[in-house]
Every structure is written in C-alpha cells, then in structure tokens.
Design brief:
316 residues; alpha/beta; UDP-N-acetylmuramoyl-L-alanine:D-glutamate ligase; 9-stranded mixed β-sheet
Amino acid sequence: MPNPTLPHSCILFIGHVSTDKIENINGTRTQPGGAALYAAIAAKALNARPAIVSAIGKDFPFKDSFLGLDSASVKTLNMPTARFHIRYNRRWEANYLQVNIGAGSKISSSMIPSRLLMPQNLVHLSPMKPTKVARIVENIRRRASKVKISMSTWIGYMKVARQRRLLAKLASQVDFFILNEFEAKALSQTDTLPFALERIKTRRLIVTMGKLGAIMSGPDIEPQMVPALSIPTGKVVDTTGAGDTWQGAFLASYHMTNDLLKSVTVASIISSIKCSQWGFKAIEGLNFKKPADVISYVLALKEGWMQKRITDFAKM
C-alpha cells in the first residue's frame, strides 16, 4: 500500500514504450517493452500506484500492458511506435540491431499533468536524450520544487564529452541517479569504480552491479554495498528490461519504506523473477501488498513451496 505518510502518492515514470523484437539462446519473441513500461510494471507488482507518461503509435499492439497503470498521459500519435531489435549472445550481451524512437521522440514536459506532480510524489526519468531530460527536469523543478526526481541513463549517451558534462550536471540536480557500473565508469571517464563514486556528485547515487548487488553513496553516507540475493527462479529466459525492472522496484520500495537497504534487496529479487520468463510476464501478475511480502516470497522459495506462494501473491 502507499506510504501512509504520503497520502494518495504515486510514482510517475517518464520514458519510452516500445515494441521489441528479442533474439536470444531461448528463441525469438516480439513483445512490449521500453524502459518506462518495465519500471512501471515492477512498481505495480509492489502496489505502488504507478503512472506513466509516454507516446506510442496507433500500431502499438500491446495496450493490455497498461492494465493497472495510470496511463491517461500515454499519448497515441499518428506515427510509428518506438521499435527495438535486440540480439543477445550467450553471455547476455546485447547487440542493438534496430533502434527507432518513433513516437517516443515526442515525449515532452508538456505531457505531464499537474495532478502527477504533487509534493508527495516521485518522478523517474527513464533513459532519453540528455537535452530532453534537462528540459523535463527544469520544467518539473519550476512547477513542483518539492517533488523528488530520479533518473537513469544509457551508456550510448556518454560517448560525447558535451553529453557527459550535461549528464553530470543533471546528476547534481536530481534526488536519485541510478547507473550500472559500466555507465558510472563511462560517465566519470575512469576504469575504477571507487573513483567513479567520488566523481559523480548527486544526492543519492545508486550503482548496480548485476549479480553482485548495488553500491549506494551520497554526501551524507559512506559508500555501502548491498549484495544481491540469489533466488531459485530457474533458468534465465530473457534479460531485456532487467535493469529498468530493478529501478522500478527499488523506487517503489523506497517510496513506501524509506529504507535503502531493504529497497535494494527487493529490487534484486523482482529483477531476478522478471528474467525467469519473456518480457515482464513473470511479474505483471504479481501483487505484493508491501515490500516485506517479497521477503516472504523468497522464504517460500527456500522452503520449496514456490507454486503455492506465487499464487498467493498473484492478482486474482
């Protein structure tokens, strides 16, 4: 349930919704995707009242993906939906064969309704061009100075010095800056993660490290590492959107508990569950009433009665 100290609060996710063609060792699938959609569905699994701002084309065939989300601000435009064609090798390294932003290029701050910028809300900006993100952050700060802002980005935006400088500036303006270890090193132009943690100035820096967990740092806390939990979800089927799922679950948990350590743990679990099936099939039907229920789910897995517990936590 939403944090009782934050009445009617929600988490707003701004970013791309796409049609993805995914190829990996388990086969080929065409499925809904986009960083904002993965993050919002992860937050929905934790009962966090997610809303989404995005733009799709009339050709988007997966509108059922928005069930349970506040999607009133997802605009349908007369242009193609964003499309990504991603091929993974056996080490789950991604090769983007097609990137077509399409309708996603029209996402703007003007699409954000004032009702979603209440002081108790949290806004997360999924990866978009840094110049666009800068305009959106400026607009939100002008309209709702007390809203907390989180953002993530993409290593492809860090190839040019001008964009790295803009991303570093944005990091100083938001409340949560979430990167993976490779993005952190690329942004700070170092091969050493401790140096990256020192160079990136933000209120809360969250650096994810896959199976190792995550590192948190900030002006008022020493860098601390939270190991990821390894849970028996079976083989990895599809890693697409795993990082975005992690971010959505982390933000939902933190928004409800204000507990950074618990939130990293919950995010690792939800992301692991997501990877056990194609797309977000493994998490879209889950309905944990509170983050602590995720821990109960892991205990159920340990005791060997997964099927019973997955039913307990599924929406009926």
